[in-house]
Amino acid sequence: MSEQPERKVLGKQVNYPQKYSPDILVSVPRVVNRDAILIDDNNLPFIGVDVWHAYEFSFLTNRGLPVVGVLKMIFPANSPFLVESKSLKLYLNSFNMERFGNNPLEGVSILLEIIKKDLNKLLQCDVQLTFFDAQSKDAPFDFADYIILEKEVDSESIDYNDYKEIPELLISGLGISREIKFATNLLRSVCRITHQPDWGSAFIYLKGKYMPSKEGLLKYLVSIRNENHFHEEICELIYQRLNMFFVPDELMVTCIYTRRGGIDICPVRASSIDLLPTNLCNCKQLSYKLLRQ
After folding, report:
1. What is the C-alpha to C-alpha distance for residues 71 and 286, in angstroms, rounded to an integer?
2. Where are the strands (E) in 77-160, listed by range?
3. Residue 81 forms beta bridges with which residues?
4. Distance between CA atoms of 92 and 58, rounded to whole angstroms?
5. Whole-angstrom Cα distance, residue 203 to residue 151?
6. Per-residue DSSP letters for 81-98?
7. Domain boundaries in the chain?
8. Burial, 98: exposed, middle or buried (Cβ in 10 Å; 0-12, 13-18, 19+)?
9. Sheet of 179-190: strands edge to edge?
10. CATH number for the 147-275 domain, one of 3.40.50.800, 3.40.640.10, 3.40.190.10, 3.30.1130.10?
11. CB 121 within 8 A of CB 113
12. DSSP string covering 31-78, please?
């Protein structure tokens, strides 16, 4: 049996490339995990994007001046592939000692064109890219009005016994609003290959006739703690369960993960385009970073 593509570099000791290395990039088919949770890849129940921030992006100008900043990348959720994160980290680091442009602005322009071409080819989609050399002190935040579940309920009096995903924990609540904006900072899952923990926050908007109870939703999100999936797959798993159990009129799930290897991954899935977080999904905007991001 041939090796899974994501195992090419993930979980292995790999020397950092010293020269531009597009061949190190690895794509992973999205359809494999979607089939497992009954998502029809040809008829997706959502639209969305995967927002990536590479905080250690750097290269040299032709005169050897280091240029450093944040590279924001947005991949469409309907692309046939996602990019494996360690391979992308190694690929971006392959530019560290390479020289581009007579000045930083020219170098950035050249490099963004190269990266876009490589990623478009790898993922068979149109990738958005923006380079930032500064962060606004007043960076916008899309989720300021979301209620933190573990602070909303008496979380310390609840018994938590399930740490592999249990959909049945999603029970309907009585007498609550027909529209919710809930979040948790307790999101944890495990990398599908390395089994290293991935930490993050989840933000859920749901509108419809049926609603999850606050306690049940919190226990469900906690139950993901030992699930072995990539970040994008966890977001789609949460979306799919809520969509199937409550058949909402509107639904949006965003997972903002803590950076690992200098990169964070923030998948967003929504039932319509107007539900996408405005600033997070804008490639030209750096939004507010969470405490653990």
Report:
1. 10
2. 81-83, 128-132, 147-148
3. 29
4. 8
5. 14
6. EEE-HHHHHHHHHTTTT-
7. 5-132, 147-275
8. middle
9. 128-132, 66-76, 47-60, 263-270, 250-257, 197-207, 179-190, 147-148
10. 3.30.1130.10
11. no
12. HHHHHHTT--TTS-S-EEEEEEEEEEEEEE-TT--EEEEEEEEEEETT
**Catalytic residue annotation:** 191, 198
pLDDT tens for each residue of the chain, 293 residues long:
344 555 555 455 567 888 999 999 999 999 999 999 999 999 999 999 999 999 999 999 999 999 999 999 999 999 999 999 999 999 999 999 999 999 999 999 999 999 999 999 999 999 999 999 988 788 999 999 999 999 999 999 999 999 999 999 999 886 667 899 999 999 999 998 888 999 999 999 999 999 999 999 999 999 999 999 999 999 999 999 999 999 999 999 999 999 999 999 999 999 999 999 999 999 999 999 898 88
Residue with tokens 């990536």: 52
CB atoms within 10 A of CB 30: 23
DSSP E strands in the chain: the ranges are 27-29, 47-60, 66-76, 81-83, 128-132, 147-148, 179-190, 197-207, 250-257, 263-270
Full-prediction pTM beyond 0.90?
yes
Same fold: 5-132 with 147-275: yes
Whether the CB-CB separation of 44 and 243 falls below 8 Å is answered with: no
Q: What is the spatial distance between Cα 189 and Cα 258, in angstroms, rounded to a whole number?
A: 11
- Classify strands 47-60 and 66-76 as parallel, antiparallel or unpaired: antiparallel
User: Span 5-132: which CATH code?
Assistant: 3.30.1130.10
